[in-house]
Amino acid sequence: MKHVSILVPKSNTILSSVVGPYKIFKSVNDFVIQTGKSQQPFFDINLVGIDKDTVLYDGAFSIHCDATIHDIPKTDLIIIAAVKPEWIAEGITANNAFIPWIKQQHTQHNAEVASLCLGAFLLAETGLLDHKQCTTHWAGIDLFRQMYPQIHVLPEKIVTDQEGIYSSGGAYSFLNLILHLVYKYCGQEAAVYVSKLFEIDISRDNQNQFAIFKGQKEHSDTLIQRAQLFIENNVSEKVSVEQLSGMLAVSQRNFIRRFKKATANTPLEYIQRVKVEAAKNALESTQNTVNEVMFSVGYSDTKAFRSLFKRFTGLTPVAYKNKYNRELVSF
């Protein structure tokens, strides 16, 4: 029997990321007993908090934990539930007591640790992610990279798995991580059963199609902000690094260095991301052909545009339009 500790961060937990794993692990227990694979449940599940009770969403919901971290001397698998994006810094401080407990369980008892969505910030604080791969919600990627430059972030991934440390992409992507853990611990038959019962797309492995690029402007370099504004206001034009550095009267080398420091992107990457985001919006909201959209964002090479678009979204322009165009999608 595997002991699972689903951690419930104080005050800012995303309720579904507690209930979802709990229900899936419970359903696996039912499956192994009903199919005769075991006479005992496979997972022994506890909701674990710093305190026994946590109130969420301004009192609309509350979670009563089975145990606190002081009640669990040893566990096999730790699930760090997702936290609200607007309360990351405060949430880390409020839940600081989890950090030494997680580290102790992993280093002394070989417990595996999985973060769901923005729970990756709490996992990162333990140091267990240092120099390892990680993913999180696309909306938190830039902040995560700023806070933890020693971690190898894979923003497109739904699931990462390295040396007993796991992470999931944004929002309900955590379902795919839990499914991954079911497959690892209980095998393909149980994982397929769970994917059908909860209607989880078992083959999904990329979250880029859901990302919205808003530009990284939370910095104080006004010269780079001017460059960003120029790029965004001239999305249909071919903009070069040489043109930008000349316009701002700085050397190319200095401009590239400052741009990367301020935005975490090179100027070329930023130009590409702005153009792809404009193309996505056009494919979602207009009846323009892919070629018309391509020309409207300053590209003329179909193959190059298709390759670039797929690199940032995980889908070809045609596939993206078929999936998200308002006239083509019926709700």
Structure keywords:
331 residues; alpha/beta; 7-stranded mixed beta sheet; two-stranded antiparallel ribbon; 14 helices; globular
Architecture overview:
This is Helix-turn-helix domain-containing protein. Keywords: Transcription, Transcription regulation. InterPro entries: Class_I_gatase-like, DJ-1/PfpI, Homeodomain-like_sf, HTH_AraC, INH-QAR. It comes from Flavivirga algicola. This protein is of the alpha/beta class and 331 residues long. The chain has helices at 16-34, 88-94, 98-109, 120-125, 141-147, 174-186, 188-197, 222-233, 241-247, 252-263, 267-285, 290-296, 302-313, 317-324, and strands at 2-7, 43-49, 53-56, 61-64, 67-68, 77-80, 112-115, 133-134, 152-153, 159-162, 165-168. Strands 5-2-1-6-7-11-10 form a 7-stranded mixed sheet, sandwiched between helices. A hairpin with a 4-residue loop joins strand 3 and strand 4. Helix 1 (16-34) packs parallel to helix 6 (174-186). The radius of gyration is 23 Å and the shape is globular. The mean pLDDT is 92.
Summarize the SSE layout with pairings.
Elements: E1 2-7, H1 16-34, E2 43-49, E3 53-56, E4 61-64, E5 67-68, E6 77-80, H2 88-94, H3 98-109, E7 112-115, H4 120-125, E8 133-134, H5 141-147, E9 152-153, E10 159-162, E11 165-168, H6 174-186, H7 188-197, H8 222-233, H9 241-247, H10 252-263, H11 267-285, H12 290-296, H13 302-313, H14 317-324
Parallel strand pairs: 1-2, 1-6, 2-5, 6-7, 7-11, 8-9
Antiparallel strand pairs: 3-4, 10-11
Helix pairs in contact: 1-6, 1-7, 6-7
